[in-house]
Specification:
about 550 residues; binds heme-as; binds copper (I) ion; Cytochrome C Oxidase, Chain A; mainly alpha
Length: about 550
């Protein structure tokens, strides 16, 4: 049997579901973009079962932000943990069980979504209420992703037994931190659903405490964005330097960045709740300061990754201060998609600073600026990177040659251009006070000014360009899977520029885990004690979208 056949199969099934979710989810994007532009197709679509803008928006958010990412990440990391440790999974059946639980959960959640019973948007804020099985379905997806993480951890433990004292290879190391971060931070949403939402949606209790629910949601909701981002960083650090023809500038710095994400990702969720009542300004300020701290590992990443790309560009003959950029392998789809993703992400990160600044947040909170921000981050930094990864991963998994390298490169550039137009429109609309989660075309009739017009057009046109990019991606993927030409594509693994000895403090979980738990207790303990001591099972469920 060929090496890693089981792991490849597991990764392949995850990736298949992920791509389906991406493609179905993005079908709703252009509808929203066109609506913002003033072309409302929703009444015409009722006959095919799409009842409203809000149903489409929920499907878009859940399928693209939650399902595409989670399935891709669990599949991708399962494969690279096994490959970088150079051993098969210790319990492949655990990974299969994990996948099955995730699929069952997805189907359970999909039914009420498609029937317009769960149009609660991807943040599912109570007191908006969906049927209980919707929440149970989402819980199963999370539980399945935990099991996937356990399978990676048990494999690593087995490896460690056989390699006492050895430093864990970078790709496995970074993947494990990502999965452990996920295990810790999902305790928030798990308790929200199991303790508050399920009893309430089952009718066992008459009401829900909306503020406590939101706080538990953001306990998970913020680190969720790093659960999305870190697999992209894994590729940028651990694979891209190789694809660029160079080496990783500093492995020590890369490892430090991952530990800092473990430490700092969770205790900052209140930056989503700066305007929420019932939470003290002092604690919001603490979370704001810690948010600025988590900016730091991304700055380290920018420095390290650009230095690695420069190393590649110079190794390929590049000269001058910036001219080495021309020598990078822009004819490689995987490289191009990921590098364009990085450039877009840098602007998303800068916008994140605006969001995180306690007082400036008041200007942008709940406006179209926020979807502008997250289409640059999760919608491009992450998604376009994952697409770039698929350009080598699908050939690696199937043994088929990537079809249409030029089409794939065009796909990445079309995305880049479409996203710049689209997200610039959303940012500008936000600064003009256009609300998010709102039919802007309709809202414009009521209070939108003439200065909304151009950015609304940008959103519609940019959205359509992005849709063309997704279509190109689908064609490339389909043609690749059906390709008669075969090719053996190896997983790119970057080497460090200098043979660095990894110091013990960068290879030891204990201090970082203790620090993580302590910081979470400090930043969330008093808030949760206060909210729980004042709990009120007060609000009934609302269905406002029908
Ligand atoms: Fe965010 C809201 C703050 C990063 C996603 N964020 C959101 C929401 C989402 C999201 C989905 O403080 C909306 C949630 C909702 O529905 O309500 N965000 C930040 C900050 C960062 C940040 C400070 N966000 C992300 C990432 C996301 C993401 C990553 C997904 C993956 N965000 C906020 C705040 C809110 C928020 C508030 C709440 C707003 C509100 O009021 O509701 C930082 O972590 C960003 C750091 C990143 C950088 C960029 C570094 C650049 C790199 C690339 C370098 C390479 C280059 C290539 C340039 C500093 C690493 C060079 C190429 C060559 C060829 C040479
Ligand atoms: Cu956040």
């Amino acid at each position: 049997m060929n090496a890693f056949a089981v792991e490849k199969k597991i990764a392949g099934w995850h990736v298949l579901v992920a791509i389906l979710a991406l493609v179905v989810g993005t079908l709703f994007g252009p509808l929203q973009g066109l609506e913002h532009m003033g072309i409302n197709l929703y009444p015409a679509l009722q006959s095919v079962g799409l009842q409203s803008y809000y149903q489409g928006l929920t499907l878009h958010g859940v399928l693209n932000a939650l399902v595409w990412t989670t399935f891709f990440i669990t599949g991708f990391l399962t494969l690279i943990v096994a490959k970088s440790l150079n051993r098969g999974l210790a319990f492949p059946k655990l990974s299969w069980a994990a996948f099955s639980v995730m699929v069952v959960g997805l189907l359970m959640a999909a039914v009420p979504l498609l029937l317009n019973l769960a149009s609660v948007l991807y943040t599912m804020y109570p007191p908006l209420q969906a049927p209980w099985y919707y929440y149970l379905g989402l819980t199963l997806v999370v539980v399945g992703s935990w099991m996937s993480g356990w399978s990676m951890l048990t494999t690593w433990w087995a490896w460690r037994k056989d390699n006492k004292g050895a430093t864990t290879p970078f790709l496995a190391f970074a993947s494990l931190i990502t999965m452990v971060l996920w295990q810790i931070c999902t305790l928030g949403i798990a308790s929200e659903i199991l303790v508050l939402i399920l009893p309430w949606s089952l009718g066992l209790v008459g009401g829900i405490d909306a503020q406590l629910s939101r706080t538990l949601f953001w306990f998970t909701g913020h680190p969720l964005v790093y659960f999305w981002l870190l697999p992209a960083y894994i590729s940028w650090y651990g694979m891209m330097p190789k694809q660029a023809g160079g080496k990783l500038f500093s492995e020590q710095l890369a490892r430090l960045a991952f530990w800092l994400f473990l430490l700092l990702s969770t205790p900052i969720g209140l930056h989503h709740q700066f305007v929420d009542p019932g939470l003290s300004a002092g604690w919001k300020y603490v979370h704001a300061v810690l948010t600025f701290a988590v900016f730091f590992p991304s700055l380290l990443t920018a420095f390290n990754v650009i230095a690695s790309l420069e190393n590649g560009g110079r190794a390929r003959g590049g000269k001058g201060l910036l001219m080495w950029i021309r020598n990078l392998p822009w004819n490689e789809p995987s490289f191009t998609a990921q590098t364009l993703a990085m450039i877009i992400f840098a602007f998303g990160g800068i916008g994140g600073m605006v969001n995180a600044s306690y007082d400036v947040n008041l200007v942008v909170h709940n406006t179209a600026w926020i979807p502008g921000h997250f289409h640059l981050t999760v919608g491009s930094g992450v998604t376009l990177t994952f697409i770039g990864v698929l350009y080598w991963l699908v050939p690696h998994l199937t043994g088929k040659k990537l079809w249409g390298a030029k089409a794939a490169i065009a796909q990445a550039w079309v995305w880049f251009v479409g996203m710049i137009i689209f997200s610039n429109g959303l940012h500008r609309l936000g600064l003009l006070d256009a609300p998010r989660r709102t039919m802007l075309g309709v809202a414009n009739d009521n209070y939108g000014a003439a200065d909304w017009l151009f950015p609304r057009l940008q959103v519609g046109i940019g959205g359509m360009i992005l849709f063309v990019s997704v279509l190109l991606f689908v064609v490339v993927m389909l043609k690749t899977v059906l390709n008669k030409q075969t090719e053996t594509v190896e997983m790119p693994v970057a080497e460090p520029l200098h043979q660095e000895t990894i110091p013990a403090w960068l290879n030891n979980w204990q201090p970082w885990l203790v620090g993580t738990v302590v910081l979470i207790l400090v930043a969330y303990g008093p808030i949760l004690i206060q909210l729980i001591s004042q709990i009120q099972f007060f609000s009934p469920g609302f269905v406002v979208w029908k």
